[in-house]
Every structure is written in C-alpha cells, then in structure tokens.
C-alpha cells in the first residue's frame, strides 16, 4: 500500500474534478495499492498536515507527500515508487 498525502484548499468535489492530483488519482483508481489521504478545504500549513500523518498510528511503509497541483503522468507510478 502506498499512502499519498496531500492538502488542498479545494472542496472534495472540486479536488476530484479540477485539481491535477485529483484527476491523476482518478485515472489511477484501478491500482488498489494507491491510497489517497487528502485534507480537503485545508487551512493548515503543509508541515502540520504532513507531520500529523507521520505521527499517526495508521500509516503504511511507503508514503508520498504531494501537492495538489502535481500531475501523475505514469500509469506505472506504484511500480516505480
């Protein structure tokens, strides 16, 4: 399992329909190894969002911290990580 941690100022529906990362993750939804952990309508700083994940008990061995404006253009993203 690969957790993808991101924070977005967008609402959940805006994230999935308008952000580069949301659209990318929708295209990669066939790969059940990817687990998006998105903080929607976020008003906290990225360090706070990322550190709260790092300190949580519910995490996987592989973690990717990513901005919501990143486009994943690789269908084999999980294999390459």
Sheet with most strands: 3 strands, parallel
Approximate shape: globular
- How many helices? The count is 4
Low-confidence parts lasting 5 or more residues at pLDDT below 50?
none
* Order of helix and strand elements from N to C terminus: EHHEHEH
Q: Name the helicity range.
A: 25-40%
Measured between the Cα atoms of the first and last residue, the distance is 11 Å
Mean pLDDT: 95
How much beta, percentage-wise? 15-25%
Alpha-beta classification = alpha/beta
Please tally the β strands and state the result. Answer: 3
Tell me the strand order in the biggest sheet.
2-1-3
Radius of gyration in whole Å, from Cα? 12 Å
Give an overview in words.
The chain has 81 residues and is of the alpha/beta class. The chain has helices at 12-18, 20-27, 46-55, 77-80, and strands spanning 2-7, 34-39, 62-65. Strands 2-1-3 form a three-stranded parallel beta sheet. Helix 1 crosses helix 2. It is globular. The N and C termini lie close together (11 Å).
């Amino acid at each position: 399992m690969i957790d993808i941690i991101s924070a977005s100022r967008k609402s959940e529906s805006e994230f999935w329909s308008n952000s580069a990362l949301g659209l990318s993750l929708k295209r990669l939804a066939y790969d059940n190894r990817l687990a998006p952990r998105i903080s929607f309508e976020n008003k906290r700083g990225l360090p706070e969002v990322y550190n709260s994940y790092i300190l949580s008990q519910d995490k996987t061995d592989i973690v990717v911290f990513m901005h919501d404006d990143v486009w994943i253009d690789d269908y084999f993203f999980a294999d390459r990580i």
